[in-house]
Write a structure and sequence with these properties.
There is one protein chain. By secondary structure, this protein is mainly β. It has 8 helices and 28 strands. About 10% of the residues lie in helices and about 30% in strands. The strands form 7 sheets. The protein has a 4-stranded antiparallel beta sheet with strand order 1-28-27-26, with no helix packed on it. A 4-stranded antiparallel beta sheet has the order 2-3-4-5, covered by helices on one side. A 4-stranded antiparallel beta sheet has the order 6-7-8-9, with no helix packed on it. The termini are far apart. Belongs to the WD repeat CDC20/Fizzy family. One of its GO terms (cellular component) is anaphase-promoting complex.
Length: about 525
Amino acid sequence: MSSNTPKAASFSLHTPNQARAPSKSLKDERSAYPSPRTTGKPAAGSSGLASSTVPRLAGPPSPRMKKGKPAQYDRFIPNRSDKDLASSQFNIARADSEQPLDGATIAYHEEVARACGVSINKRILSFKEEAPTSDRDDLRQVYSRPALKPSASTAAKRRILNTPERVLDAPGLVDDYYLNLLDWSLGNMLAIGLDQNVYLWNASSGDVNSLCQLEGDSYISSVKWTTDGAYLAIGTSDGDVQIWDAESQRRIRTMAGHQARVGVMSWEQHMLSSGCRDGSIWNHDVRVANHKTAELVAHSGEVCGLTWRSDGALLASGGNDNLVNIWDARSVVPKFTKTQHTAAVKALAWSPWQLNLLASGGGSHDRHVHFWNTTTTARLDSIDTGSQVTSIQWSSEYRELVTSHGIPHNHLALWSYPSLAKIVDIPAHDTRVLHTAISPDGQTVATAASDESLKFWRIFEARTKSGKPAKNGPLAAASAAAVGAGSLRSMSSSAASGTGSGFGASSTSDISRPAYIR
């Protein structure tokens, strides 16, 4: 072959022993070795001898071979076959030098910016305003914010002190879990039983008076005011129930019949219910001579908790047999009985803002407060307080309740309802808190303990119309009278001898006397 023969002709196939064929045999050789991309005879005059004559290895076809079907790739390996990498690298290299845009491109950019409502020279993805430059206003004025106004919840937040507002000595207080020796009347008179004596403390003036004194070996086992605060019922260790007129300090009648001490009582208008150590509950009609109208027997242990619901339809009782009984006023058989407590149930309290909600607390081996729906008889929730529960007081101002405790912590605990979150623990006494009573305005809780002290805690501070806590509590007048903390017994003795301020009608609220007590 002459030297002018094209180099492409050298790619024709031939065997080693065969002489090189002339150029006109290329067509026959192409027919003998067809291209894998064609099944018939190649078109006349086609070029590309190398691609048509070089055999290909068997394997998956190239993506370019299937023009009618899109290529599929693994999602982790991008397809760069249609990318001009050399051109991309060149564009990156000259990215620093801005190229001028032609008029058509500028007009298009302006049209898009106008349609999007943004400025042509402003960043689209901007998360905050530009920082001011030095030629603008003072940075202290630009970035200064007005002080945040306190929210209503912050402004109305009350302080609960862990120190008492007032402390009185209470010598001779019987250290007995099952007794109920403290009660606060609607007329702001506090009654407390100390051994054989009952003392009345006027929370408005600070005056203290001795109401009665038992004889012999008898002692006071319970006290309870009527709803209007005019009369006081006194239970004794002999099983008697006495009714006293607080204003005249005169005993009106004595209702005997119980075979053991009367540890708890509860009023419902003219009806007085009394719980006895033998497990019985008597209903007394104080208007008639034959006072006993019903006897409720369902407890096998001493009845130490007893309270009527505000509408007088249900009576709740708790005893040393670990039972809670709910009684219908028209029946002598319990409506239902709850057995979840594992210790004596003394603490019982009806909610003032939900009629069918009852809370009950157990003794030292139980330490739980259970909440009952007395309509469905279901237990709604429970709290493990960690201490002996001696009493429960609901707040009429807040959705809260306070529980008093004995061993081991001897404290007061404030709880939110229905979340049952603990708000505060108040270390109240050196020994177990035996009794509590709440003031008629619902702000102050009085506690009596076996350490022979009577303390007053302002826990449920009332809110004014503006939402802020009120400043004056029920003990403000007594503090102004400068009576001071002292012994109830000594102050009552001085009042009886004429040296004290004494007890008068002007020091209490004007309450009309009911006609049902004779």
